[in-house]
Amino acid sequence: MTTSSKICSVIAAIMLLCAVSCGNKDKYIVMRGYAQGGVYAVKINMNGVSVKPEAIHAAVDSILREIDTTLSGYNAKSLLSRYNRGEKIAVTPMFREIYEISKSYYEETGGALDVAAAPLFDAWGFGFSKDSLPSDAQVKALMENCGMDMMPDTLGGESIGKLNYNAIAQGYSCDVVARYLYSVGVKDMLVDIGEIYCDGLNPDKQPWTIAVDRPTDGNETPGADIVNTWHSNGGPCGIVTSGNYRKFYVRDGRKYAHTIDPRTGYPVTHNLLSATIVAPDATTADAYATYCMVIGLDEAREFIQKRPDIEGYLVYDDNGTMQSWTSSGF
């Protein structure tokens, strides 16, 4: 789910976005390509960067390929898919890093964020299979045999359970790409891989501005229907929106949303439509946006207000009318 307006056409070449002024030699470029079942756009200022644009683009593509072959549950040959099939794998630094990050979120949220609840996501049709509408008995059986409370703190090569990183993988991808961009001297950047990380200024020498999509069922085109706009302060941060308006299905007149509460085993049924979180990095923003969608409006509002390191924007249904709540620093 993205909070920015996507450019529909995907061009493999690197394009010059703009040159701001002759004096400071700012030169913004945008790199685009395919990643994680969609498109990505990386906008950077080349001022002070000695690496050629073509090399940067190739490096970004390489990073995203590594993420795909490591963490994608849709790639049958990835480390994650092999692990989930019960194969013994060589645990790479990336595989271990995201697992340990996920374990910390599981402990912090009391199990509301649980990447080892993958069998539950599959059973409801929101994981890596096409199942749907499991029986109560099936849900109970799955909950007794999956979850991070049954997993070790650090992974070995042997498969113990099944994992699904969809709740944080796109935010994590943004952070890994940003980490590389910083390493080559980029200061002004916007990394959009379904979720967003940004820092510095845009080509107009203003902090980045991100649109928040209206969480209306069927709103499948990012940027086509906007409910709000967020303005950066020019510092580094991730901004992510999570919601139940794109991934859901209806059976017998009832909507089943893709947000599963691992603590109950069932899709959430509260009135929170979407949660947009601004955090120091995109992984954190992604995780906490999902967390807010699990716990619902009242708990999400309380959680955001208690955290000085994040800001939030919550859109909810109030007896058929769309309403919103905004934290003081959003």
What does this protein look like?
The chain has eight helices and 15 strands. Strands 1-2-3-4-5-8-13-14-15 form a nine-stranded antiparallel beta sheet. It has a two-stranded antiparallel ribbon with strand order 6-7. Residues 1-23 have low confidence and may be disordered. A hairpin with a 7-residue loop joins strand 1 (15-19) and strand 2 (27-35). 29% of the residues lie in helices and 25% in strands. It is α+β, with helices and mostly antiparallel strands.
Mean pLDDT reading: 86
Question: Low-confidence runs (pLDDT<50, min 5 residues)?
Answer: 1-23
Number of strands: 15
Strand order, largest beta sheet: 1-2-3-4-5-8-13-14-15
How many strands, what sense, and barrel or not for the largest sheet? 9 strands, antiparallel
Distance between the termini: 19 Å
How big is the Rg? 20 Å
- How many helices does DSSP assign? 8
Strand content: 15-25%
Short description:
By secondary structure, the protein is of the alpha+beta class. It contains 8 helices and 15 strands.
Give short descriptive properties of this protein.
330 residues, alpha+beta, 29% helix
Helix/strand layout:
Layout: E1 15-19, E2 27-35, E3 38-45, H1 53-71, H2 79-84, H3 93-108, H4 118-123, H5 136-144, H6 169-183, E4 189-192, E5 196-199, E6 209-213, E7 226-231, E8 237-243, E9 248-251, E10 254-257, E11 260-261, E12 266-267, E13 272-279, H7 282-295, H8 297-306, E14 311-318, E15 321-326
Antiparallel strand pairs: 1-2, 2-3, 3-4, 4-5, 5-8, 6-7, 8-13, 9-10, 11-12, 13-14, 14-15
Helix pairs in contact: 1-6, 6-7, 7-8
